[in-house]
Amino acid sequence: MNIRFLILIMGALLASFTLAKHAYADSNDALAPKSSAKDALAMPLHTVTIATVSLEQSLLFYRDGMGMQVEGPLTISPALEKAHRALWQMPDDLSWQTYRLYREGIDSAIQIRLLVLSKPMPTIHDSWNSRELGPFSLGFPNTDTIALDKHLRTIGFGALNTLESYPIPRADGSKYQIDETIFNAPDFNHGVAITRGNGMAQLGPTDANGKGGPAYSAQVITDSESQLTFYTDVLGLEIRSDRVFKSAGDKGAMNLPNGTEFRFAIVYSKGATTGHMLFVDFHNVEPIKPKNAPSLPNIGLGMWSFPVRSIQQVMDNAKAHGATIVSQPKQVNDPLVGESMVATLRAPNGFLIEVFEVQP
Q1: CATH number of 3-357: 3.10.180.10, 3.40.640.10, 3.30.56.10, 3.40.228.10?
Q2: Which residue windows are coiled coil (predicted)?
Q3: What is the pLDDT of residues 225-269, one digit of tens each?
Q4: Disulfide check for 5: which of 98, 191, 308, 338 has CB 3.0–4.6 Å away?
Q5: 183 vs 165: CA distance, rounded Å
């Protein structure tokens, strides 16, 4: 493992767990960790990979809109490209340039690995409709969603609906306000601007401008039990919150049919306070099944990457669980995940999961 990269990884983890100690100590927060980071197998979500042919639009949204920084195109050696083709099942006739998008000064924020493809590929989604199955969004905590909403619309991005403000219960039954807008990001992805009010800690650290994230990623799924069991049994993650919600319908941020109910599960790495996943499973409306697989090399949000303490344990868990193993561990030196053993799996819905080993 590259020493500089190891220091960055452990620094991000320390920042996350230090945030937990301070932000959640007296916050009466239902999402506060009750587990310990020392028991985590998979650590918080580290990198999200998005394939695109629209570099300009991607930079407009994530850099100019959400305030992320950009590096690239990165230098990818022939050996690393060969490894990536095997790990991600990229076809031989497809090439790409790699960009890294990140939040300066916030090591615990999720990185975006942006793959700018040499030619169009099928899209993971057919529209921005929030009932479409598959990877749904990246979440951007910030201290002023009203201002961020105005900014994103000014530079040309629409949303599923107007900004929604709604109450969420604390552990003692009192409530705090959330302001949320779900923007139509490039490639039929969604970018969520979200602010927790009434003194609540944001869902991830924010910078001097009040912007943070990505701090989480969401999917729309069916068969919650098999999906969630994969993340808990194979990756060792934990379900922190699991409730049934009735949406605000056509007044809500997701702009769903009136009366829609859905299971809403929030999954964290043990001991973590950010880098989590949200899973939506509709109860009384039919989800929409896109035509194409929710995975690279298709255009859109096609992979999640997790640091893990033991890649062998993950592979053993995957075998015991009957999960699809795409690639056995390979030694790589990757500018986004460092020098590490890397393997890939598929979640039950076909979504690609990358794991890379980090030793404490």
Answers
A1: 3.10.180.10
A2: none
A3: 999 999 999 999 999 999 998 888 888 999 999 999 999 999 999
A4: 338
A5: 15
